[in-house]
Each structure stands twice: as C-alpha cells, then as structure tokens.
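P.,

For your records, the input lines for the assembly:
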Amino acid sequence: MTGYLEGILVVLCINAVLGYAAYLPLSIGQINLGIAGFMAIGAYTSAIVTNELGFPLILGLFSAIAVAAVAAALIAYPVLRTTGIYLAFATFALNEIVRSLFLNIELVGGAAGYPVAVYSGILFPALVAAVVTLLMVYSGATRAHIVLASVRRDEAVSDLFGVNIRLVQLIVFVVSAGLAAAGGSLYAHYFSFIEAQHFTVFLSITTILYVVVGGTRSVWGPIVGALIYTFLPELLRDSGEWRFVIFSALIIAFIAFRPEGIVAPWPSGPGSLVARWVGRSR
Amino acid sequence: MSAPALELAGVCKSFGGLSVVHDVSFSVAQGERVALIGPNGAGKTTVFNLITGVYPVDAGRVTASDRRIDELPSRKRIEAGIARTFQNIRLVPELDVIDNVILGEQSLCKGIRPYLAPIRWLGDSGARAQARSVLAEIDLQRFDRQKAGGLPYGIRKQIEIARALMAGPSILLLDEPAAGLNAEEAAELSRVLLKLSDAGLTLLIIEHDMHFVDQLCDHTIVLNFGRKIAEGTLAEIRRDPLVREAYIGRSEH
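Structure tokens returned:
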C-alpha cells in the first residue's frame, strides 16, 4: 500500500471515530462543539502516558478514553444545564479553554507542539475504528436507539414514559467525550506530533457537518459522512482551491435539501426533494 | 372496598393570574370507565397534566390506589400505574410503529440489562414480541414495521394507546381518543376499550363525542372554567341545568 493511500485510510478511521463522537449528541438533538477539545485531551493524555510513563499503545488509548470521560462527567453538570444554542456556546467555550490549557502547558511543549514517540501504523487505528463502528451498530439495534430518538423528538413525552432525561444526556456527553478522546489518541500515534492549534472549534464544526451530511438518524450516517469527507477533497484535489468551494457548496445543498442526511429513507418520485424544499413551511 | 384507582382532592392550578383548575375533586374506582367532559378551555387536559406531573399542583392532592403521587417527579408516576395518550399525537415519526410501542415499557427497564439485548435483531422475542402482542390486542399488528409518521391520524391515535398499554398501567388516561375517527373507527375503538376494561383496566377519558361517551363510560365528570360543575351518569348530566347552560344545552337546543 502506498504511503498516500495508507495516510488517507488512517484519516478515514480517525474521522469515523470522531464522527460517532459528534453523532451521539446529535442523536438526542444536541450540538456539542467541544469534540475537538476532548480529542485534544485524548491526544495529549495518550502521548504523555506513552512518552513519559512508557505505557504501551493500547493503554495509551484506554487512558485517553478514561481521562476524557472523567473530565466530561465532572463538567457535565454546569454544561448540561444549558440547551439548544446555549449548549453550543457552552461547549464552544469548553473547547477553547481546553485548547488554551494545552497551549500553555510547558510539559507538552506549549505552542511548539509535542512529539509522540510511539507510532501506531495503520492496523491499530483500523482495529479501533472497526470496534467502535461495531459497538455503535450494535447499540443501534438495542433499546438505546429508541430512547435516544424519543429524547430528540420529545423530551416531555420521554420523561412521562420513565426516561431519565438527565441521565441520558450525561451518558451521551461522557461516551461522546470518550470517543473523541479515542480519535485523539489515534491521531497522536499516527501523526507522531500534536499541537494545541489543531484542536480548534472549527474541527468540531467540520466533524458535525460531515455527520449531518451522512445522516444523524442511522448509526451508518457517521461512516458515510466520514467516507465523503475523507475522500471527496482528495478526488477534487486536481481542482486546486476550488475543491473547498465545491465541498462547501455540497454541504449547503445537503442542509437545504436533505437535512436528515444520506442514510435515511429517501422520498420517491422525481422532484420530490425539490418539492419538499419548496413546501417546507411546515 | 378497595381504594380508588385515582383520586383528586381539592386540586388547584394557576398560570400567572389565570386560574385554570380550581378546587377539583373526584375519584375513579378500580375498573371504572369515567369520562371527563367540558367545553374547550375547561381545563380537562390540564387535569391530565396535573395527574401525570407535567405541571406540579398548586394545592390539593392526587392519589393512585392510596399512594400519594402529586409529589413524585413526572417520570416516576407511570410506575404508580398511570399511563396516558395525548390530544395532539406525540409519537416519534421516524421510528417504526413497533419501536414507538416498545418505548412504552421504558419505566419497567431497570439497570443496564434491558439495554444490552439487540432487540431489533432478535425477531420475535422479548420486547418486540410483547409489543406485537399489544398491537394485536388492538388489531394494529399489520403496521408494526411501518414508520409511525406515515400513518393515518386514526391509526396513530391507537398506536399511542398501544404505547401506553406497554407500561402495564392500572389506569389509562385517554385525551380525546375518538377525535378524528369516523363512526366505524370510533365504534371499533370503543369495543377495544371495553375489552381492556373487562380485563381490569381503569379508564379516564377526555372526549367531546357524546355518543362515544355514552357507549363506553359509566360515569361522567363535567368541568367548566376549571371547576367541576357536575358528575353522574350521562343521563343525569344531560338533565343538569348548569351543564345544559355550559355545554350540552347549547349544542342540543
């Protein structure tokens, strides 16, 4: 396999894992812009324990997940008191706080970045992405899928049927943080160098966008989104700067015509997408 | 004699300066079929919301089988045996009918175990089998694999009943179950509800269709402007001058 193709496949694996981190909050109707922050926590944790403590790769991954999950659980209380746009702002702030912290910690190189000694190759990220995908697909077949869809659609009715909304939100927030951290750990050990500037809110937003394109109502949505997001810019590489314009236009088209994403039942009949868009007042 | 399935005593609710439910008391015996009627804005749905905890009561108490429930959080009240449907249908349109029904047994799922089974892959066992049998009880099993959002109004109303039944309630609160149904569908629904009632389920029903109430309910409570103005059999209610003035009188004379 060429280095170029291997690089793209590893990016795909990382994007898929990150995609699930964005998908979980979206599946209950939440926009979590802190994903890149938790990814940073995961990347730095994994780098530190492998560099400084000599942990093997797999323990680096588990440490990353554990530290991010605990951090998420600790800050969940104030963050999850907000909803809608305020939750987006709160997680935006969280992301920037985390990023600024790593930017100023000398132990991890501050703004100069932090080299990561343990290199993963392609097999480890592929395995982790496969396990995460399988777990998410499995959970999509369980009752959890029903509960999440119900919470997204109608919190009041879910509550009356006995769903503990706060607990669901907490679990989603913590698991999402753990997944983002796993993505961060994979990133650190493949690219062998991390710097705080990489983990901006823009990265969180991009992740959310490709999951929205893939579909937020099916566990396959993040995979499809990650595939498009990873390969499309590469296919458009010859078009130079235009590839960003084309990619952006595609995302806007999706949000306008197909807000539920690719993986969801498609309406039948020609022109029905346009017809639905024109008649969207409902 | 056993304790009433549901009892309201001096229940009051105001929104700001507007008194929506004022000093309402009534009780529903085990196995009884009671109608709650009244003009639009009489406070009927608010009474349901107070029973199920959507809003806290300002004063008064609500008990279910001798257990005080008005201080329980809303999500715990279904465990006291109270399940309901909604006036404006509130299903998850993008989920299959069967998944909507399965949500009904959420209050029975304790701990992590119920969440581990891949119920969608297990075919006809566990939760799905139970949901299918509840759907069969009200003759809706043919819709189980369809998306709830794409079905006709009358069917969706009955799916809400199936969802509520999944909780294994002792009392079912139905908010205008016959609204939007044609005469034939309403008669069928009334047959289904009678069957459930024969099996021991207590029913409290908000309904405007007096023919439906007449067929189904043995006792009627009338609300007007948030107050209870009468209760009795429908025949007694029809003769009550207050009720005629407030409600039935206007439509029949």
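Two observations worth noting. Chain A has one domain: 3-281. The longest strand of chain A covers residues 114-115.

Regards
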